Amino acid sequence: MDNTDEYLYEFKGYNFEKQIVNIEHLEKMEDFEIKDDDVFIVTYPKSGTIWTQNILSLIYFEGHRNNTENIETMDRAPFLEYNIHNLDYDKMPSPRIFASHLPHYLVPKGLKIKKTKILYIYRNPKDILISYFHFSNWLITLESTDTIENYLEKFIDGKVVGSCWFDHIRGWYEHRHDFNIMFLSYEDMKRDLRSSVLKICSFLEKKLSEKDLDAVLRQATFQNMKCDPRANYNSIIKNEIGERDTGCFLRKGTIGDWKHHLTVKQNERFDMIFKKNMKDFPLKFIWDINDE
Ligand code: A3P
């Protein structure tokens, strides 16, 4: 792909969001200084990034949890590769929390050397596809697509920001031993938020009182986040990035919405490609709210 594309900027085989990426920042990212107590949330787009950013923010920042501070999630847990608010990452107080969609081979070298914890959140790719289709039609900085049929092809070919979903998850999983990483699924979070937050706390070695845990769980629900301007990017999108139509960052927040959008034929095509690409892949995917 050449970089004349209006929406995608390809750098070392991976597609970035052209209109917001800073190439100088990208070129220096490999050497970005990592600290042992940094925490990274890594996801493929539309896998529950903002949800996890909010959860970690609630776990780490008392002022967020008890509502005494009014800092947006985006500034609590900024994207490493897209420094939208031009924060000075070196001066952020520790522990710093970063979100990232980077593939395993583009992250700062320090992540392999330090004890830095990485939380990889994954989601069934059919729901990602549908979520991403709507999101791309909403944001002015992403390429819109008229039909799901056409979007399906782009998604499968990785002609989207974040490149190919299959490569992203396989790459991170296959290189898991190079990092201090925990994998957790969106669907696990959706089906049992309490035990997922406890798992996250245990990985992060953070002990919350019952009262604080309850506050995290209360504030991290879909309904709450949808109404809490700190916990979704609606105003950043409206006021800073730009939107095509009206939209909403927290759209449906369910498991299995793909069933309302994919035709039988599209679903079969996706299954065939999934089978081919994910053969022998050990992580389990939940496709339906009723799956065991
Ligand atoms: P949908 O478009 O399917 O609703 P990301 O932050 O990686 O872009 O992911 C966005 C997706 O996560 C959206 O999916 C959004 O609704 C969902 N999401 C965000 N917060 C959530 C929450 N508290 N509970 C369930 N889903 C949530």
Describe this structure in words.
With 292 residues, the chain is of the alpha/beta class. It is 41% helix and 10% strand. It has one domain: 3-Layer(aba) Sandwich (Rossmann fold). The longest helix is centred in the middle third of the chain and has 14 residues.
Defining traits:
292 residues; alpha/beta; binds adenosine-3'-5'-diphosphate; two-stranded antiparallel ribbon
What's this model, at a glance?
With 292 residues, the protein is α/β, with parallel strands linked by helices.
Number of helices: 14
CATH homologous superfamily - what is it? P-loop containing nucleotide triphosphate hydrolases
Question: What small molecules does the structure contain?
Answer: adenosine-3'-5'-diphosphate
Helical proportion, percent range = 40-55%
Any low-confidence stretches, pLDDT <50, length ≥5?
none
Kindly report the CATH topology: Rossmann fold
Largest sheet: 4 strands, parallel
Radius of gyration: 18 Å
Q: Helix/strand-derived class?
A: alpha/beta
N-to-C CA distance: 41 Å
Mean pLDDT: 95
Q: Give the overall silhouette.
A: globular
Q: What portion of residues belong to β-strands? A: 5-15%
Overall number of structural domains: 1
Helices, strands, pairings?
Elements: E1 8-11, E2 14-17, H1 23-28, E3 39-43, H2 49-60, H3 62-65, H4 73-76, E4 97-100, H5 110-113, E5 117-122, H6 125-138, H7 148-157, H8 165-174, E6 180-185, H9 186-191, H10 193-204, H11 210-219, H12 222-227, H13 234-241, H14 264-277
Parallel strand pairs: 3-4, 3-5, 5-6
Antiparallel strand pairs: 1-2
